[in-house]
Structures are given as C-alpha cells and as structure tokens.
Amino acid sequence: MKKIGFLSFGHWSDSYGSQVRSGSDALLQSIDLAVAAEELGADGAYFRVHHFARQLASPFPLLSAIGAKTDRIEIGTGVIDMRYENPLYMAEDAGAADLIAGGRLQLGISRGSPEQVIEGYKYFGYVPQGGSTDAEMARQHTDVFLQVISGGGFAQPNPRPMFPNPPGLLPIEPQSPGLRDRIWWGAGTRATAEWTAQQGMNLMSSTLLTEDTGVPFHQLQAEQIQRFRDSWDAAGHAREPRVSVSRSIFAIVDDRDRAYFGRRGAEEDQVGVIDNAVARFGRSYADEPDKLVEQLREDEAIAAADTLLLTVPNQLGVEYNAHVISSILTHVAPELGWR
Question: Where do runs of H (alpha helix) occur along 176-299?
Fold first, then answer.
C-alpha cells in the first residue's frame, strides 16, 4: 500500500492553451484541485515553491486555505527553499497552518533548486556569514526552524509585558504538536539523504539526483533510499520514517490523453548539468494502463518508497488534472498493489 498524492508547480501563463492565466488562477485552482483529489481518494496535495517566477511562491496562505476546505488529505510542499526563509516567522506560519488543517501538514524543505535570479535569497535579506555557502545557510535556517517548532522556550520574557507570561523562557507560538515529525528534506544526493536521516527528517526525493554513477535513475534513487533507511536505523530514532518519490505518470485512457501524451514513445533517463554538477534525470511514463503497470513494476525507487507524488500539468486545468489523478488511482494503483 502506498500513499498517492499530486505535486503541482503552480505555473501560470497567458499563452495559448493555458487554463491558468494569472496568479489568482494558480492559487484558486490549486485549492480546487486539492478538494477534487480528496474526493477521488488521493492522499496528498503538494506544491512546489519558487521565487521570482510565475509559479506558486509563499506557501502558507495556500496551505491554510486548503486545510480549511478539506478534511482528510495531507497538505505539503516539495520543497520550500530554506535559503529564503526567516525560520522563526516560518515556524509561526507553519504552526498556524497545521492547526487550521488539523495536523495534516507535510512540509518538504531543502536547500532549494536553481534560481530565476542570481543569489535571489539576498533580496530577501539573507547572506551567508563567515565564508559559509548558501547551502550551509539553508541548513542553519533549518536547524533553527526544527528547534523552535519542537516547542522549547528560548526568548527572554519582558518583565513588564502587555499580557501575563507563563514562567520561564518563551517559545514560538502557536505550537502544533507533532509537526516536527512531519518535516521532509528534499535530498539530491545519497550523502544528503544520509544527513537527512541523521537530522530525523523524512526523505523527499524527486525526479533528479545531482550525481550520476552510470546506473539507471530508479536504481540510483533506490540506493539513496536504502542509505537513508540505514542511517535512520543507525541514528536510533524512535519512529518510522517516511520516504516519497515523485514521477510524471500518465495513463492514456481517452482521446485527450492521446492528444497530450500519446506521441511521446519510449522515454529514457537523461544526464545533464545542474548547478555545475552532473545530474541524472528520471524518465516520465505515459502509456495505456496495462503497459504502465508493467513499466512501473520495474521502478525500484517507487517500490522502496511509501509515498508517490504524481507531478501534474497544472496549466491544463482542474478538471483534466483530476482526470489524470483518477486514472492512476483507478486503472494503475490497484494492479500494482498500491490500493
């Protein structure tokens, strides 16, 4: 059994064929798609976070709105770029959004992806200190965030406050119990997956790794997942971790599917360069359901993960994307034992 959700980049464009033509469209349709996905029986609604782009950015208003309009579905990010974040303000936002959602947030965070602008985090007021790198700054922000959502007091109270204080140092408020166990790190390498386990975060792995050993992507990703689990066990954490992978998977069941995805043919991994590092990109899947089932049986990383996020073409609109999700839940997942 697997949890199956969707991952949306939240693009908007006024180009021909786009049904998401503005930032308002992207936000409101994201809410509608999450509601539709819950009604279909999907398990998660996840959203990418990109700055300086016509894509979803500040996630917490969106997550809160979805939390208020749904009852069961997990609500998450994949991922928040921690180079840009004030960890204390983020902790307040995350705590509030999680309480609104009844403890359903699953926050994917990371060092982030290549940016639209040069060193964009500097425009948000953050500069690596003391010769450290932006990746190290992201991990520093993450360390603070994880500490404060755990509930410990750290701020010296005013001896003459406006409102009475409880005794001792004060924590960030509001606190949402259990949120610390629902933080995921988006890891792009095997070594980062091991670090993620040591920190007690869940593992979020996407369709690219910023390393290449010459083996197929799904096998390299499966090795990453195994290293994460081994490191988790070695760290002695009390709970069971979670692992997600994301894939573009389209079941061709009608003429619309054939028009959009039916001419792709067989796809393979791709190797390229990202952030001056060799990266391996995983393939997409688009075929008739019976053929998809056979192809997906061979994906070792999907087999190793407990959560699968389906990347959706959000500019094709809510109705079609709900159809994409429904097709996987109906025609593919049961045949693979995911449902």
Answer: 190-198, 217-235, 255-261, 289-297
Rg (CA), the chain: 20
Q: How big, in percent rounded to 5, are the helix, strand and coil portions of the chain? A: 40, 20, 40
DSSP H or E stretch at residue 324: helix 318-327
Give the separation between CA 69 and CA 35, rounded to whole angstroms: 7
- State how far the Cα of 77 lies from the Cα of 259, in Å rounded to an integer: 30
Q: What is the pLDDT of residues 107-155, one digit of tens each?
A: 999 998 778 999 999 999 999 998 899 999 999 999 999 999 999 999 9
* Residue 5 one-letter amino acid: G
What pTM was estimated for this model as a whole? 0.95
240 Cβ contact partners less than 8 Å away, ≥ 6 residues apart: none
d(C-alpha 181, C-alpha 75), whole Å = 14
- Phi, psi of 8, deg, nearest 5: -115, 135
What is the distance between the alpha carbons of residues 51 and 161, in angstroms, rounded to a whole number?
Answer: 37
49 near 76, Cβ under 8 Å?
no
Q: Which domains does the chain have, with CATH numbers?
A: 3-151+171-336 (3.20.20.30)
DSSP-H helix ranges across the chain: 23-40, 60-69, 87-100, 134-149, 190-198, 217-235, 255-261, 289-297, 300-304, 318-327
